[in-house]
Design brief:
Blueprint: H1 34-48
Length: about 60
C-alpha cells in the first residue's frame, strides 16, 4: 500500500521485502530555508562523496 512505513522506518520498497540500492529521498517544504539545504548538502558531501557503491547481494529488479 502506498504510504505504508517500511520495516526500517522509511517509506518504499524496504517494507515490501525488496532490496534497496541506497537511494536518498529529500523533501522540501514551506519551512525549508537556504540554511537547511546548505546543511543537508554539506552532510551528504562529507558522508557520501567518496563512497563507492557496494552492489554485492543486490540482484537486478525485474519489476517495480
Amino acid at each position: 500500500m502506498l504510504g505504508e512505513r517500511g520495516s526500517k522506518g522509511g517509506y518504499g520498497h524496504a517494507g515490501r521485502g525488496l532490496p534497496s540500492g541506497g537511494a536518498v529521498r529529500v523533501s522540501l517544504g514551506l519551512a525549508t530555508n537556504a540554511a537547511d539545504i546548505a546543511a543537508f548538502l554539506d552532510f551528504v558531501t562529507t558522508a557520501y562523496r567518496d563512497r563507492l557503491p557496494d552492489p554485492v547481494g543486490l540482484e537486478p529488479r525485474m519489476v517495480c
